Amino acid sequence: MRIKLALTVIVAIASLSVAGVGRLKETYNDHFGSQASSGENADEALELAEVSEHHLETQGNADHHAVAEHGGGEHHAEHKIVVTSPVSTDVTLTQQYVCQIHSRRHIEICALEGGYLNEIGVGEGQTVKKGQSLFRILPTLYEARLDADMAEAQLAEVEYSNTQSLVQQNIVSEQELKLAKAKLAKALAKVKLAQAEMNFADIKAPFDGIVDRLHEQEGSLVEEGAMLTTMSDNSVMWVYFNVPEARYLEYQAALNAGQDRDSLNVQLKLANHQIFNQPGKIGAIEADFNNETGNIAFRADFQNSEGLLRHGQTGTILIHKIENDAIVIPQRATYEILAKKYAYVVGEDNVVHQREIVVKNEKDDIFILSEGLAAGEKIVLEGIRQVRDGEKIEYEFAEPETVLANLKNHAE
């Protein structure tokens, strides 16, 4: 019975305020007076209520002191509001495209005739000159065929000479002379064919370049058409990169407006993040778009006199373009709602208004705008979280030149 009374009192105390504990005593006397088995139980319950009252008062004072000390826990230090202006200036924009680097000429060197690979005149990665012998197929069979054909040609020449002498003596007719002449011509043609086959056995470099990996070793039996190696002409490199349709249309519009194709500032950034020391120029554009990606392939040409670039390398094409009289604002002067960007514009009455902006390009920490703001207007740069649309504010003005020069130093 005593435990039950104590629990009832504790529940009642927890549900009442400190000011209502006094009323709890009267409620207890009215409700439990008739049920208490003795005055001792009532006294103990009232004593428990007084202890609980004292605990609640102590806790309330402590909470009030904590709230007063910490300002209610809801106060945040406010930053000063800084305002600046958009500026109209010339901006150099850089477009980046992943690229593949190819040699201007990259060919397969194949065996024109089958046979044993008798001689290899070059090593892997060696630089060769046009006409230099690279491989030689065992020529014994071709030499024998050439000797036989040359012998037949000599015989045909002797027969022609004798027939010509007999015709002059009116011993044979002119028809015999024509037959001898035709036989000589056929023999000489066979000699040329045998000589060509002999030349096929000696494979020479078709241009100045670099020999790649050797696919066959000396002594190997190779078939006609077997690839022996590849060879690259790296004097000029063709660099291919894919351009979106919108950028392609911009490029064509600039050309139609009179811009020279060679006037574009094209650079190549290598895998080590270094810029290649030769400028590039747009050499060609493919005929068709890729229907899956919506891109079209461009080709930039780079002189490679030092031989640094090799076939198959990768890099990044950088195309620099100057945007004249561009409206520029710091990126941190904007905020985004549902994929749209906005800025707070300060009117002449110091009242801020939310305004949607359209970003044309971005570079580092700035946005280049196509719509929304004009040079000379005032926008909130710092303290965006502290202002509301339609509020009147006090602010400090920061010169846009100073702001753009110190964009890395964030205030918020």
TrEMBL record:
One of its GO terms (biological process) is response to antibiotic. It is found in: Cell envelope. Residues 325-385 form the Multidrug resistance protein MdtA-like C-terminal permuted SH3 domain. Gene3D superfamilies: 2.40.30.170, 2.40.420.20, 2.40.50.100, Helix hairpin bin (1.10.287.470). Residues 108-226 form the Multidrug resistance protein MdtA-like barrel-sandwich hybrid domain. It comes from the Bacteria. GO terms for cellular component: cell envelope; plasma membrane. Pfam families: Beta-barrel_RND, BSH_RND, HH_MFP_RND, RND-MFP_C. One of its GO terms (molecular function) is transmembrane transporter activity. InterPro entries: MdtA-like_b-barrel, MdtA-like_BSH, MdtA-like_C, MdtA-like_HH, RND_pump_MFP. Residues 237-319 form the Multidrug resistance protein MdtA-like beta-barrel domain. Residues 142-203 form the Multidrug resistance protein MdtA-like alpha-helical hairpin domain. Belongs to the membrane fusion protein (MFP) (TC 8.A.1) family. This is Efflux pump periplasmic linker BepF. It comes from Rubripirellula reticaptiva. The lineage of its organism: Bacteria, Pseudomonadati, Planctomycetota, Planctomycetia, Pirellulales.
